[in-house]
Amino acid sequence: MSKKLLEVQDVLVNFGGVTALNKVNLHVSEGEIAALIGPNGAGKTTVFNIVTGYYTPTSGRVIVDGESVLGLRPYQIARKGLGRTFQNIRLFGDMTAAENVATAADSLNKSGLVGSLFGGPRSRRDEAASMEKAHELLRFIGLDHRALQMAKNLPYGDQRRLEIARALALNPKVLLLDEPAAGFNPQEKIELGELIRKIRDRGFAVLLIEHDMSLVMDISDRVSVLDFGQKIAEGTPVEIQKNQRVIDAYLGVAEDAS
Amino acid sequence: MDFSILISDFWSLGLDGLVVGAIYALISLGYTLVYGVLRLINFAHSEIFMIGTMAVYFVVLQFGFTGYEDPLPLIKFIGIFLLFATVAAIVSGGSAVLLEIVAYRRLRNMGASRLSSLISAIGASFFLVEVFRKISDSKNLDFPRLINKDPFFTVGTLYLSADKVLVLVGATIIFLILNRIINHTKLGMGIRAVSQDERTAILMGVNVNRIISYTFLLGGVLAGVGSAFYMVFYETTKANVGFLVGISAFTAAVLGGIGNVRGALVGSFALGLIQQYTSAVLGYNWRDVVTFVILVLVLLVKPTGLFGEALQKARV
Amino acid sequence: MALMKASAFNLRDKFGDWWDGANSAQRTVFRIVLIGIFYALPMLNNPIIDTPETSFSSVLFYPLIMFSLMAVGLNVVVGKSGILDLGYVAFFAIGAYTHAVLSIHTPLNFWEILPFAMAFAMLAGVILGLPALRLRGDYLAIITLGFGEIVRIVAVNTEAIGGAAGLTDIPGPTSILGIEFTVMDPRPYYWLTLTLLLLVIWGVIRLSHRKPGRAWEAIREDEDVAEFMGVATLKYKLWAFIIGGAVGGLAGAIYASQIRSIQPELFTLNLSIMILACVVFGGMGNIWGVILGAVILGYAPEKLRFLSDYRIIFFGLLMVVMMNIRPNGLMPRKKREHFQEKSK
């Protein structure tokens, strides 16, 4: 069995009396594309906010590559190997595409402010490395021709992809994608699916939140289903499609989600 | 440090603390209400209060009082005070609505950053202070004594005087009215709806711009009434009177939990008491330093205040 | 209005095109000529630019170059990182008092004190920043506002540093490179400040183009996301605060050495707001913009007497109007975008 890179163990989250997540267990293994699905308000994004350290769970554990990350600040968790994108695109709008990616790449080196000011050899090397990484990733997602444009001026689809490049710059053990296909047309969805496979083939495990069932069923190795903060099912896409509890949870939602 | 005054005047300091607290409460409610609907501190609210004091001063000039007359009979004084409060409420309320239109509305509708709104409000605040500094020629504007402030009732070291009773009773009446408005009127429901979830409020057909206007109006009216009490109690004002009063009222709102009406009341009375007692020990000059330290401590240790919601992380 | 705007932009773009196309020799010549003009400014005796009340060379020192220096410092905090600091005057005051107290009570001279002035201001930045920078924007603003006022109140109430009367007979800088610093002639102070300003600009630009600059911008754009992308946000916000503080402290020390007597009343909130207005008016985040803002807002009240009486009214109004009409200022920060053909 391959190594688990991200584990969520018995995570319970209470927001002022409302249970957003109820003893949820999830994991993402090396080399896998895992998906997290569920009706709106099921707690999917809350899972991302918990594992990236934005919220602290009421109880339970979050483990990244064998190490508990509970109590760490989000930037520390990011450096340990979790990169994420956002349901509503949240790029650094007034920075160029390359700078967006380089900002995340920067966090992998230890150059400090004083070094940057006086330009020691190490900071020069790190600076070059960040920019190189930024351009390499932009090439990878096919945005190199946009490198010097402001993120806010990019077309919608490019913005979504730029978010992915930025998250990849962290060299994440697990890449967390929050509805990456939102607003995409069928052709773009197919391209996105290919991109996610390419990312997996580069050695990044992926955890995907997505409403588009055909995309999820097409690319995922394993699917977990959340409903009202509970994990109600887990299995291969084929198993999930047949699962009665999942069908019930989605009743009436399944039509417009495909 | 000298604790002798604290011990000898314990009860009268406490009474003054409550009186000052009642005035703070009327102002801090404006911070809290506006924060509720905008999720933004209204930096110019202290100037809304200042304009109220100026309006009261202007009204009293019209009566030609010099301060050397005999005190007014109680009934007549109450009548005049009601006039002060009404004028101040209208002027402050109107200014608050105007302020919202000029400094906030366009920015909000443009979807500008919080930073822009803050800077705009701060600009408006300084503009107003300086305009009134010019009008008042940088002077302290002294208010005549209209009522006999000699204590009419004494228990030990507790001296009860008419002005203090007026502030406490008057403020209590206002709080009861406010409670009614917020909990039992359509406007109150609108304010609560927008405070809880603006998007849903819009979906439910609430006109958010109008609710925000009314919220500024309500906050301004309360600050105006507060300024009338302030003038009777302190009997002086100046162009930058709002700054320190504003910091105190804001601290009170944070202490109670900003966005929370009950919190603003409790926080204000608590702060009034703290200020009186610490001033008695450290000296009046350090009062504002103490207030500031309290503000910092509350924000660091318990930013939700006594009753409030989590502030640091607005909803994602 | 629209036409004016368009032509101003063209000028800027034209300059940008020229700059991009210029070789390093051309750029160096341009820089030297420009800097030379600035050093020569106090020598000009031109009735058009002369100011009616005070001599032009003293206006050059205060407010023009002083405002510029402070605006560049505050810009790191407000413009680059998006942290609203309303108590910037506190750092200025700390620098001024450091020079005053140390030069009166110790044998240290101005040049030896300068590092202390900056260090104390930086320390104040850490003491205020460590707790305050954890808070959200509007709380931070009110805390810094309070801090600026508290520093003043403490100065008024502390007799050891002169209380409300302040400190007098503060020594000026000892002569350096044959230049004497006298009470009568403000020009050496201008040259000194200009030199330090150039150094500060060099440093800030260098940082802006590298990792710290990206971190600051990311924080300004979306602090939560910056944190998710591995940026140690608190650390970089603190650095912005410390750098802004150091520049403010530096300005304060020079100021105290020139005017020779200081009182707490010189360090009111109004000064914080004026510097903020310079930054907002010129263009938050653009170093050349904020200097332009400082020069215009410093100069206008000196040249136009009717403005000087209504200075703060005007500055306050300007902040409201700018935010509503042109929130990015006169000369917005603007990265020149380069469009490339798709390479594949």
From TrEMBL, chain A:
Keyword Electron transport annotated: no
GO MF term (any one): ATP hydrolysis activity
- Keyword Ligase among record annotations: no
Some GO term, biological process aspect, for this entry: which one? L-isoleucine import across plasma membrane
Q: Which GO terms describe its cellular component?
A: plasma membrane
| ABC transporter domain mapped to chain residues | 6-253
Alphabetized InterPro entries for the sequence: AAA+_ATPase (IPR003593), ABC_AA/LPS_Transport (IPR051120), ABC_transporter-like_ATP-bd (IPR003439), BCA_ABC_TP_C (IPR032823), P-loop_NTPase (IPR027417)
Kindly state which keywords UniProt assigns to this record, in alphabetical order: ATP-binding, Nucleotide-binding, Transport
This one is known as Unannotated protein
TrEMBL record, chain B:
The entry's keywords: Amino-acid transport, Cell inner membrane, Cell membrane, Membrane, Transmembrane, Transmembrane helix, Transport
Q: What is this protein called?
A: Unannotated protein
Hey, which family's this protein in? Answer: Belongs to the binding-protein-dependent transport system permease family. LivHM subfamily.
Give the GO biological process terms: D-alanine transmembrane transport; L-alanine transport; L-isoleucine import across plasma membrane
Query: Which residue ranges run through the membrane?
Result: 20-41, 48-65, 77-103, 115-132, 152-178, 211-233, 239-258, 265-284, 290-311
What does the record say about its membrane topology?
Multi-pass membrane protein
Q: Which CDD domains does the entry mention?
A: TM_PBP1_LivH_like (cd06582)
Q: Where in the cell is it found?
A: Cell membrane
Picking any one GO molecular function of the record gives: L-phenylalanine transmembrane transporter activity
Q: What is its main location?
A: membrane
GO CC annotations, alphabetized:
plasma membrane
TrEMBL record, chain C:
Q: Which InterPro entries match?
A: ABC_transp_permease (IPR001851), LivM-like (IPR043428)
Q: What is the membrane topology noted in the UniProt record heading this document?
A: Multi-pass membrane protein
Predominant subcellular localization, coarse grouping: membrane
GO MF entries: branched-chain amino acid transmembrane transporter activity
Q: CDD domains, per this entry?
A: TM_PBP1_LivM_like
What are the GO cellular component annotations?
A: plasma membrane
What are the UniProt keywords, alphabetically? Cell membrane, Membrane, Transmembrane, Transmembrane helix
Which cell locations does it reside in?
Cell membrane
Q: Where are the transmembrane segments?
A: 29-48, 60-79, 86-107, 113-133, 189-207, 238-257, 269-300, 306-325
Against PANTHER family, the record matches this protein to:
HIGH-AFFINITY BRANCHED-CHAIN AMINO ACID TRANSPORT PROTEIN BRAE (PTHR30482:SF10), HIGH-AFFINITY BRANCHED-CHAIN AMINO ACID TRANSPORT SYSTEM PERMEASE (PTHR30482)
- Would you tell me the protein name for this molecule? Unannotated protein
Native source species: freshwater metagenome
